[in-house]
């Protein structure tokens, strides 16, 4: 009897999970496991709110596996050690997993592959890397050129269904992982809940109940309320829903409701997400360097890891707590602290303010976002921060936002700032 392990990471779903489907088809028994690696899930790198969203996502995944006769093991430790122990316990011949693209995640894959047979499948991007119309080494340095190239004749792989049954070793039962509850701040745009069921409920609401996709481009720069944007990003980040599932629904919406600039724009945003993944694949660890990925770029911020500049450190702390001299920046940072979410418009402004107004090393801002954002995705997060800092894929040398004029444009009546005028009383 052939037994294999399936290693869940940022693919917490059964639908459109090619690696899982392959594991089920090629083996008699599958051991599904999720591993909390303390190197990436410590409190310093992931807030309680992020961990709660992950716990909810895993609970939903566990339920779906159990409905198909399966189970989900949740363990803590280094993946290499955990998977090796599981392979020995169950006599597993191989490990199956979805391919990751950023430095730490790839290093974990290499560690596992040094001890075990590891099969990896691509499923985290809309476009399969093998279907790009150029070699990865020729990835355009500017998004617009990338988009123009791939849109000419792109191929979108079909989504694959969930396995009908998942057979696990006899006697294997699920384990449960939970974290301290975090109350929801009533000012938040949504009461985000992890899991594929919640992801699809959000898609159903936004596309089909409210039909907000039809006006997405016009409203996407909003800052208050649940429906100014799709807000799929938290579920995309940990893989509760795939970009191909969303794309399929966009195509259906275009047929059944309407096709317009807004329907295209949501796909446009999925392409941006892809682009940062491909940037991470091409540049590897350079994405996380102070100097970024641009040749001859040089970041001149005052403070970074290990620095002793007390002035700059105080500036960083003021920014983190929403206590700067800029009310618009403060409101956005308080929203992040209280809810784990911030609008795209807000993210650009607070990043620019930290980097260009306060002169703080952009990597500290990226690390703070990593800790707090429910939709933290290493490629998108660090790619966007490098972009704002001028050491990433921005064709302009200095993308500095005027936060005063931005507030006047996107919060003309000051409603957003008023909502978040007080620091949160909730702990994250």
**Highest-level CATH class of the largest domain:** Mainly Alpha
Order of helices and strands: EHEHHEHEHEHHHHHHHHHHHHH
CATH superfamily of the largest domain: DNA Cyclobutane Dipyrimidine Photolyase, subunit A, domain 3
Number of strands: 5
Q: What's the assembly state of these chains?
A: single chain
Number of helices: 18
Global mean pLDDT? 94
The termini sit apart by 46 Å
Tally of separate domains: 3
Main sheet: strands, sense, barrel: 5 strands, parallel
Question: How much strand?
Answer: 5-15%
Radius of gyration: 22 Å
Molecular shape:
globular
The computed structural class is alpha/beta
Strand order of the largest sheet: 3-2-1-4-5
Structural account:
The structure is a single chain. The chain has 428 residues and is of the alpha/beta class. The chain folds into 3 domains: 3-124, 3-Layer(aba) Sandwich (Rossmann fold), CATH 3.40.50.620; 197-285, Serine Threonine Protein Phosphatase 5, Tetratricopeptide repeat, CATH 1.25.40.80; 289-419, DNA Cyclobutane Dipyrimidine Photolyase, subunit A, domain 3 (Orthogonal Bundle), CATH 1.10.579.10. The chain has helices at 18-26, 38-41, 48-67, 79-90, 103-113, 143-151, 196-209, 216-219, 233-237, 243-256, 261-283, 310-321, 327-339, 344-357, 362-372, 378-389, 403-410, 415-419, and strands at 3-8, 29-36, 73-76, 94-98, 118-121. Strands 3-2-1-4-5 form a 5-stranded parallel β-sheet, sandwiched between helices. The relative contact order is 0.13.
């Amino acid at each position: 009897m052939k037994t294999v392990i399936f290693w869940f990471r940022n693919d917490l779903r059964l639908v459109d999970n090619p690696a899982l489907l392959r594991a089920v088809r090629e083996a008699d028994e599958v051991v599904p496991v999720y591993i909390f690696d303390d190197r990436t899930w410590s409190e310093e790198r992931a807030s309680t709110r992020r961990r709660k969203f992950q716990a909810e996502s895993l609970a939903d995944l566990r339920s779906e596996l159990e409905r198909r006769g399966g189970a989900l093991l949740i363990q803590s430790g280094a993946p290499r050690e955990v998977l090796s122990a599981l392979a020995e316990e169950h006599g597993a011949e191989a490990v199956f997993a979805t391919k990751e693209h950023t430095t730490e995640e790839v290093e974990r894959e290499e560690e596992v592959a040094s001890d075990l047979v590891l099969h990896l499948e691509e499923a985290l991007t809309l476009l399969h890397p093998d279907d790009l119309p150029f070699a990865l080494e020729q990835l355009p340095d500017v998004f617009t050129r990338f988009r123009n190239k791939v849109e000419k004749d792109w191929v979108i792989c079909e989504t694959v269904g969930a396995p009908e049954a998942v057979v696990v070793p006899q006697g294997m039962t699920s384990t449960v992982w939970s974290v301290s509850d975090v109350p929801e701040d009533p000012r938040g745009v949504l009461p985000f809940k992890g899991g594929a069921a919640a992801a699809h409920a959000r898609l159903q609401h936004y596309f089909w109940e409210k039909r907000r996709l039809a006006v997405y481009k016009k409203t996407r720069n909003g800052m208050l309320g649940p429906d100014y944007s799709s807000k799929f990003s938290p579920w995309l980040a940990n893989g509760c829903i795939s970009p191909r599932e969303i794309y399929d629904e966009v195509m259906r919406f275009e047929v059944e409701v309407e096709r317009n600039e807004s329907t295209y724009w949501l796909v446009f945003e999925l392409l941006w997400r892809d682009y940062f993944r491909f940037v991470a694949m091409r540049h590897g660890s350079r994405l996380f360097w102070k100097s970024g990925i641009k040749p001859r770029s040089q970041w001149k911020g005052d403070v970074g890891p290990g620095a002793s500049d007390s002035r700059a450190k105080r500036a960083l702390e003021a920014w983190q707590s929403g206590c700067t001299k800029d009310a618009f920046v403060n409101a956005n940072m308080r929203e992040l602290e209280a809810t784990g979410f911030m609008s795209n418009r807000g993210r650009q402004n607070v990043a620019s303010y930290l980097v260009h107004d306060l002169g703080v090393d952009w990597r500290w801002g990226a690390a703070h976002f990593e800790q707090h954002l429910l939709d933290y995705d290493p490629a998108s997060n660090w790619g966007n921060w490098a972009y704002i800092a001028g050491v990433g894929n921005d064709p302009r040398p200095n993308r500095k936002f005027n936060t005063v004029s931005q507030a006047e444009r996107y919060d003309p009546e000051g409603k957003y700032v008023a909502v978040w005028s007080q620091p949160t009383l909730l702990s994250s």
